[in-house]
Specification:
By secondary structure, the protein is of the alpha+beta class. It has five helices and twelve strands.
Amino acid sequence: MSSTPRPLHPESLTWTALLGRWVDYARASLAIPSDAAGASWQASVPAVINLQAVTFALSEVSELAADERAFALDKAAVLIRDGATDLARIWGDAPPPSLVEVIDDAQTALRCARHAGAVELIWHGDDVLVMPDVDPGQPAGTLAVMQPGTLVMSREPVAWWSGRADAPLEVPGCVTVPCDEPRQVYRRFDETGRIVGDVVAPIGAVPPDGLPLLVPLFADGTRIGHFTLEAADWEARQRAAMAGERVSVEEIR
């Protein structure tokens, strides 16, 4: 395997340059398994090189200027989609596990890059919090917030954001905590409509069954959602559906 590429000068750091140097690195370090002869493996090489290069380059995307970073993330998503499509075309429904891992690594790197510097706002009280009415301000960065009137269990995130220089909101009793990947809270119901528990899971995980409680409001500075329920009515509906004062919380990591 070749040594890590020399750092680029900050003044010349663009997505094209960043990706280019990692393409060279991936090409030099790509090792085809000794038992992997055949046309399918040979045809996979360009896609694998591109996917590896994107994975490496995304680890440094935070060094780019803000406008270049947005372009880089969009371009990376396209390259990952194209690479995965090419491998699916070559291998059909059963690609080798090593190629599935290459795709998964690239998708994970993109998800982490999109949420670099993410912060969660977590309820740290012992009682159940009734989510207050909050003003998220003007669209900036990416932001998800619980609907006002939501009944919040202890240690659940009531909001998360990334790509912002300031905290968009404050809730008494909640603390801000940096996170590698923001989480969603899913409220589970039984067949009678009773609330039976909450599940807190990373947003990149396979969503468990349940109603997602954090509403995406902004994405990359654009408003994409709104609160849709009247707070008092939403609170009353939840209380009527709970067997007790609170429900259990399961965390998936």
